[in-house]
Predict the structure.
Amino acid sequence: MGIRVERIILRHIRMPLVHFFETSFGRTFERDIILVEAVADGVSGWGEVTAGENPFYNEEWTGSIWPLLIDYVAPRILHHTFESAAGVAARTAHIRGHNMARGGMEAAVWDLESRLKNEPLWKTIGGGARKEIPCGVSIGIQDSVEQLLEKIERELSAGYQRIKMKIKPGWDVDVIRRVRERFPEIKLMADANSAYTLNDLDHLKKLDEFYLMMIEQPLAHDDIIDHAVLQAALETPICLDESIRSAHHAEQAIRLKAGQIINIKLGRVGGFAEAKRVHDVCEANLIPVWCGGMLESGIGRAHNIALSTLPDFVLPGDVSASKRYWKQDIITPPVEVTPDGTILVPDGPGFGFDLDLDYLESIVLRCERLE
């Protein structure tokens, strides 16, 4: 079955968060998101570009996405016949970096293919290892430890299976100690978002006393070698996030023993095709993976659900209920979490949810139709 994209529609939307989300980069109060609609034979597939509002997580940001898609990515996709969505990534591979822009477009074509086939997205990408996915939550840096403890209590009551807390220098060892005193048996991990260096090695070793599931990306966003040095000194498993942008990076990190776990984010690696390759490398080397989040709208969240049905996604990911972030999501029904801390995988065509088009159009800041 060939796919010939006849039209691409870009939408820039803005969604206010229910509560600010703080990492070592700063606080986010609302999300500016670029959505990609790819149309063929009267059917639309949808993708989400997961870049943030600022170039802090990586070099991409919402403002960089728009011209990159219009001038470089879309012209390579429009009116080209693809055997399947698996061929989309290669059409834009000559563009260096900009994985999130390229990945948002690629995800739209995968969704389009699954809708043209009238099958779930998870089936099109080769998933289906589970019918419900285990869920954790990511909790940002709070104004006080008491506020953090209250949030953790609330999320555990909602059934979430794992708690991830953001850390940074000055908000790490003493805070985690308070959390462990209050919740001695929960699955707990810490996410540093590259806030430390090897000079902090002795300080980071103090985290070993808290039997964390992992510490995520403690060192530089583009580093593998220093992580290998740090992992050799820690009992706590290191999980790599920002450092892994391709299957080749995953192979290098595994060879150097730079970590014991890898977080896979669709946007960071450029879409489903590369995400599957990273997954396969990890599975072959007995490295467990989980699905990270980027404060996505319902579209990106639904894509993450499909991705998480691949067999090596054995750890609870950051895919959580829509209501944790949005007063109103752009999909219907919103993503919900069961009392057991899981999300049921939808069986409908494409990513499995309907779009609330009226609400979506009401929050569009700009729109571009490319034909």
